[in-house]
From TrEMBL:
PROSITE patterns: EXPANSIN_CBD, EXPANSIN_EG45
Homology family: Belongs to the expansin family. Expansin A subfamily.
Organism (species): Musa troglodytarum (fe'i banana)
Keywords, in A-Z order: Cell wall, Cell wall biogenesis/degradation, Membrane, Secreted, Signal
Official protein name in the record: Expansin
Length: 210
């Protein structure tokens, strides 16, 4: 649950247990949030027969542990590529008693359903939007917000997959423009939140990356 991407309860936000925390080289200061990988265990006796493949979504950071060598405990130390998988996800590719196994991996499009979702937080002068259920590369490079009475306002990354704007946007319907980090493609989610939107609620767009 939770994690450095800001997705909160991974069941209610749609990510479930097929998730992983990424080492910092993949986490990329939060721009790796939401990216998806196919992973298969290879070259270890703990690997399940047939090397089954699982697709996981990046929802957290696996921080470095400089007190441990990177081949014995400090698995997430740069420049290592490491996936700290949830136990249910790990159990789909290998015997969990092994603790750590070598893997093959590749980036894949994210298998999401529905539109991009925005969890809104903040106050009358500050909007914070957590971006979830992003298709395609799954990641976000830049974001803009537009109230029904404003032009496009550039948002800055707050942390993980959250973006902020210091503007008075209450009482206005909200649209968002999102740029993919992987492809630089941009889509517009028009009028995602109605003029009576509230903090703490999640609003789903009708569009998504593919």
């Amino acid at each position: 649950m939770g994690g450095a991407c800001g997705y909160g309860n991974l069941f209610s936000t749609g990510y479930g247990t097929n998730t992983a925390a990424l080492s910092s080289v993949l986490f990329n200061d939060g721009f790796g949030c939401g990216s998806c990988y196919q992973i298969r265990c290879t070259g270890a006796s703990a690997c399940y027969r047939g090397s089954p493949i699982i697709t996981v979504t990046a929802t957290n950071l696996c921080p470095p542990n400089w007190a441990q060598p990177s081949d014995n405990g400090g698995w997430c130390n740069p420049p290592r590529v490491h996936f700290d998988m949830s136990k249910p996800a790990f159990m789909k590719i290998a015997d969990w008693h092994a603790g750590i196994v070598p893997v093959m991996y590749r980036r894949v499009p994210c298998p999401v359903r529905g539109g991009i979702r925005f969890l809104l937080q903040g106050n009358g002068y500050w909007l914070l939007a957590f971006v979830m259920n992003v298709g395609g590369g799954g990641d976000v490079a830049r974001m803009w917000v537009k109230g029904s009475n404003t032009g496009w306002i550039s948002m800055s990354q707050n942390w993980g997959a959250s973006y902020q704007a210091f503007s008075r946007l209450g009482g206005q319907s909200l649209s968002f423009k999102i740029m993919s980090y992987t492809t630089s493609n941009t889509i517009i989610a028009s009028d995602v939140a109605p003029s009576n939107w509230n903090v703490g609620l999640t609003y789903e767009a009708t569009v998504n990356f593919h």
